[in-house]
Design brief:
Helices cover 53% and strands 11% of the residues. It is built from 18 helices and twelve strands. Pfam families: p450.
Length: 474
Amino acid sequence: MASELLALLLAFLLITIHLLTKTRNPSNRLPPGSLGIPIIGQSLGLLWAMRTNTGEQWINNKIKKFGPISKLTLFGNPTVFLTGPVANKFIFSSTDSLALQQPQSMCRIIGRRNILELIGKDHKRVRGAISYFLKPEALRKYVFKIDQEIRHHLRTNWSDHNQVKILPSMKSLTFNVICSTIFGIERGAREILVQDFAKMMTGMWSVPVNLPFTNFNQSLKASSRIRKELTKVIEEKRRALKLGERSSDEDLITYLLSLGSDNGETLTEEEILDNAVLLMVAGHDTTAIVLTFLVRHLANDPITYAKILNEHEEIAKIKAPEEALTWDDLLKMKFTWRVAQEIMRTIPPVFGGFRRVIKDVEFGGYLIPKGWQVFWNASVTHMDESIFKEPEKFDPSRFEKQSEIPPYCFIAFGAGPRICPGYEFAKAETLVAVHYMVTRFKWSLCCKDNTFVRDPNPSPKQGLPVSIEVKASL
């Protein structure tokens, strides 16, 4: 009897140990899904879906198969895909367990000391410096520079042309605005950067295998050349600051160089350089895409076009012909910005993004291990009919009352404590560009094919060629 009781107790103990071990085994607590082939995983499938404009379908198929939480491998890292407002809040607010991260390919191309990679005090220090320059109070005085660059671009590239390809045009426009306001680089000196910048962008989302003739390899080489040129710019601005030939608020680079070490704000040379490259990428591509799809939409929506035109004509009436727009003028462009927001809701400029897991964390009952990455997607919540009624319908009035949009549901610029610091800059650039496009030009689409691909950002077929008619001089 005693031996039977001892055997029973031993069996009970073994079962308990087994259950505890099973419960604590990370592999049994991971989300459903497959990691696939190491390093590559599902990267090629996602990239192909984006380039065939079926990225949203690819995401929705994954949700149907595994639910709103699943694991996979993307761009060299084991990844957990999360979706929905609750997941968005977790992703954009969990600064203690999640850090900003982009694919390894982007990190290696841009540099490891940019704000998308930094954590803790370093992130706070660098983000604080950049955010100060980009906040509305500081941006007010840069509206004039933005105005002058946009007028120059439209005068040079639109006024004497019967046809314009909008996406390349808008990329050139935003690149020049960035060079002027962020870097303080004069027009003649920018040409060195233009071609290398285009090459650098091609490998941002790619498998990070550095083999000759791959997009990743070409992007790395282009990034190296850009960094050399920007290093020259930084050295020249540092010299000018020491000689008193420049003020600290002329552009972002000069401002970052002028920060003192007495209050712990100083940025290293690497941090200034890496974040300069990041801002060049972030400030160039997304705004160009918003403007491109806004032009496309207005060509097909005469009612919205008429409302925007009326808003801008009212502003133009009180301006002298050569008078630049001001910050106060931008505050009057409320309907225009609602249209831009609806463009970003229906066609997010950024397909998704990543966070790096800096310590084991649980979400939805699953374990997300340290060292993995979290992947989020914007279109899932943007097109959720429980959040946005009739999500397929283009309706700028959704944004009349921002308070009625639930938190973490519109994430074109991210959300929470790490919302994009360039939000106000992008808004100002968009509004100034729209003002001069609608008041000085008319356009119609040359290409009736309204489809687009993602590579990785949305790009209309043929660059969206339009016929141009000049209404008034710039």
